[in-house]
Amino acid sequence: VFNHLVRAPEDPILGVTVAYNKDPSPVKLNLGVGAYRTEEGKPLVLNVVRRVEQQLINDVSRNKEYIPIVGLADFNKLSAKLIFGADSPAIQDNRVTTVQCLSGTGSLRVGGEFLAKHYHQRTIYLPTPTWGNHPKVFNLAGLSVKTYRYYAPATRGLDFQGLLEDLGSAPSGSIVLLHACAHNPTGVDPTLEQWEQIRLLIRSKALLPFFDSAYQGFASGSLDADAQPVRLFVADGGELLVAQSYAKNLGLYGERVGALSIVCKSADVASRVESQLKLVIRPMYSSPPIHGASIVAAILKDRDLFNDWTIELKAMADRIINMRQELFDALRSRGTPGDWSHIIKQIGMFTFTGLNAEQVSFMTKEYHIYMTSDGRISMAGLSSKTVPLLADAIHAAVAR
Ligand code: PMP
């Protein structure tokens, strides 16, 4: 009965790893997927995570019963506190509802389905470019996807004027997806002053902000600093949604742990919103998994564990920032044509190199370096050992 099926294309991001795995070269380098690697190129489980997992295993009072549809209560409360801040007026007024979801992607999907069902405007505006999964997630959730200008290739920076124009002409009430920090794939974020202007525009047009926070703490090394744009919007008392992921900042990629928060106008509305979120989640996957959220809740709850986490998180962020400097220096010392200062200016896990698809495919073929065809490289996959190889490859690709 499935004979008619044509083979589906690989996911453009995950497909990079499939191609990498097939390459027998001993020097091959995967800069495609956004996952942190150590200086030795190995995946990292944070010490604080290992310690909490040991405690959880040794605690015989724990069981594996289903958790509620909306997830672990502690996890939800602490996740809201992490993104909004302990003294957030929305939390104090009980105007926030938070539900545990399957990492960032699941949180976006649940939020998208909720909006498609209950919000009066079904159009969501995404930045150009954006994470490749965004349009698919929101389309399948039942929203119609439009775009707003974000990145200016000429300056390799923010197209702030274009952004203001496009959001300024969006129909009132439209949903706007905003990357909370460390924009993927460009590494280009608005300044806080620009965020303030974006906020004024969004509120004056009654647009609905939906923040995607996949990199809190990963951009600057500070959890609070990276949450500033979200907190700016919460402070004005308006409504918003936030999808949080613990994949990157706690290295819990495969545990699929995240949260969707919806900030409402009153505690009463928030509790009705939560009741409707349950109806979205129940037929989708019934209830979320227990393990990852238990790890996160334990860390967020305990001052010492939390402190240890921030130290390890800062070390990851600093290593990425160092890689930016090393790559920039390596290109400069080779005299590679072009201005590469965007490598040190951009923020977060990725550098949007400006290399085109043809140059990327040359680097893959000749240097066994793998990345997405838009020229995005994961700085977290780079080490002092592999920087010279990447710099050689970029130099050769540009000089061709
Ligand atoms: N949003 C953005 C911008 C991302 O870069 C990612 C991960 N690449 C996600 C959401 C979702 O990641 P996850 O589902 O693994 O939390």
Automatic annotation (TrEMBL):
Catalytic reaction(s) noted: L-aspartate + 2-oxoglutarate = oxaloacetate + L-glutamate
The cofactor named in the record is:
pyridoxal 5'-phosphate
Under which EC number(s) is this enzyme classified?
2.6.1.1
Q: Which InterPro entries match?
A: Aminotransferase_I/II_large (IPR004839), Asp_trans (IPR000796), NHTrfase_class1_PyrdxlP-BS (IPR004838), PyrdxlP-dep_Trfase (IPR015424), PyrdxlP-dep_Trfase_major (IPR015421), PyrdxlP-dep_Trfase_small (IPR015422)
Q: Which UniProt keywords apply?
A: Aminotransferase, Pyridoxal phosphate, Transferase
Q: Does the keyword Transferase apply?
A: yes
Which SUPFAM superfamilies does UniProt cross-reference here?
Answer: PLP-dependent transferases
Instruction: Tell me the PROSITE patterns matching this sequence.
Output: AA_TRANSFER_CLASS_1 (PS00105)
Q: Name one GO molecular function term.
A: L-aspartate:2-oxoglutarate aminotransferase activity
Coiled coil segments of this chain:
none
What positions does the domain Aminotransferase class I/classII large occupy? 28-394
One annotated GO biological process: amino acid metabolic process
> Under the cellular component aspect of Gene Ontology, which terms does the record hold?
mitochondrion
Which miscellaneous remark does the UniProt record hold?
In eukaryotes there are cytoplasmic, mitochondrial and chloroplastic isozymes.
Subunit structure comment from the entry? Homodimer.
Family to which this protein belongs: Belongs to the class-I pyridoxal-phosphate-dependent aminotransferase family.
Report the function annotation for this chain: Important for the metabolism of amino acids and Krebs-cycle related organic acids. In plants, it is involved in nitrogen metabolism and in aspects of carbon and energy metabolism.
Name this polypeptide is given: Aspartate aminotransferase
Please name the source species.
Answer: Glycine max
The coding gene here is: LOC100804162
